[in-house]
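Annual report, structural modelling task.

Input specification for the manganese (II) ion complex:
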Amino acid sequence: DPNRFTKLSDTAWQLEPTGKMRVPAILYASEALLREMDDKVAEQATNVATLPGIVQASYAMPDAHWGYGFPIGGVAAFDADAGGVVSAGGVGFDVSCGVRTLHTGLTREAIEKIKPALADALFESIPAGLGSTGYIHLRDHQMTEMLAGGAVWAVQQGYGEAADLERIEEHGRMAGADPHAVSEQARKRQRNEMGTLGSGNHYLEVQHVTEIYDPAVAKVFGLAVGQVVVSIHCGSRGLGHQIGTEFLREMAVAANRHGIELPDRELACAPIRSELGERYLGAMRSAINCALANRQILTHLTRRVFAKVLPEARLDLLYDVSHNTCKVETHSIDGSPRQLYVHRKGATRAFGPGHPDLPDALRPVGQPVLIGGSMGTASYILVGTNEGERLSFNSACHGAGRAMSRHAATRQWRGRALVDELAGRGILIRSPSLRGVAEEAPGAYKDVSEVVKATHQAGLARMVARVEPLVCIKG
Ligand code: 5GP
Ligand code: MN
Ligand code: MN
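The model returned the following structure:
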């Protein structure tokens, strides 16, 4: 009910602090999206607002839906000096899940001619599916190097090019990782999973640009209508999931000892300045490196396929951005810079023009914000804004967001019928699991165009380009 909120604008809705809330909760959405939004989102954003050391507000992005403790699409920043906390549930299980988009230098016509062969070759080379294993098997010391080195490690191993690194957040390597904070079990789960896509929602998609909204930024991003790009969405696989599971449990048990009152046990967290908080940050950053290395290896596999099938292609990285992280960032709060631990769970970092962390070529316009839609609809590329800092610590949506559960989707759709229907529209799906395809039916997601429009109108990020799928390798 929109009447519960103070309307800040057509796309920003505030819940005033009551009870134990330390700050307001702000939901970014159009009125229509707000009405459709799961009631749990407001409840969960409100719960997050009670956590120690939270700064400014607890936020939900326009694609937000119910999650474990924190909403998916939730953003919250904490100040360590004010007793702030770090939360495994505020990062999510698939640590550093994210999207990277690669140019190909090809036009749609070039792809259309050999589309089925390209789809088959990608499907053969990209390990996908639940528990899928890759070509790479890491011994323990190699695992430690990977967890410390991220995509920098992957490039050293021969996966990709040094030029890729400047187009990845953290220049391809998350500092402050502590591989020894990663359990044996997490390492074991990851030993054979490097260079794999994982299941369901994860994808490798060949897309063509169908509309440009901001020609000047599109030019800097190297995007024009008719051009083909490849987007890869995946994360830290079994390792991230294991770390999330273990630390959630440990944080829930330790909350009492740390004197933290939890309105919901799922909000398990620990003071940033505690042994447990520091250990989680060390493990979580290792998982970020795992995800960065994983997407880098998948990029290498993708390049090999294109080299065989379309040798004229050149797969240069546009950008790689994660949407499940906690990162230390400096943001201006009431006019003065403060160091904050920014949690983004199902939310994309969206730095505006001039940000020092951006590569030289992109700094004048801002950071690419890569938003998935579904295998049967558009996806979008946006750009970060400067006002985004005040609005959401420079964060934007990360996708369309689910409109119904996986289970509900399988009752409504059949995988085979979806694959056929999409093929009729020129979209080739390749997946090891027809059930997975049904779970991921385009109709199981919100309208990505509405979500992106609300993100744009709210000023969180601005629309640059729309892309549509030609081939989708689904996990
Ligand atoms: P998540 O990280 O929450 O699992 O997913 C992020 C977003 O990816 C979802 O909200 C959804 O909009 C989008 N998505 C899921 N499957 C696909 C797909 O096959 N292709 C594209 N382009 N987007 C997808
Ligand atoms: Mn994921
Ligand atoms: Mn994701």
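Residues 129 and 433 are 7 Å apart (CA to CA).
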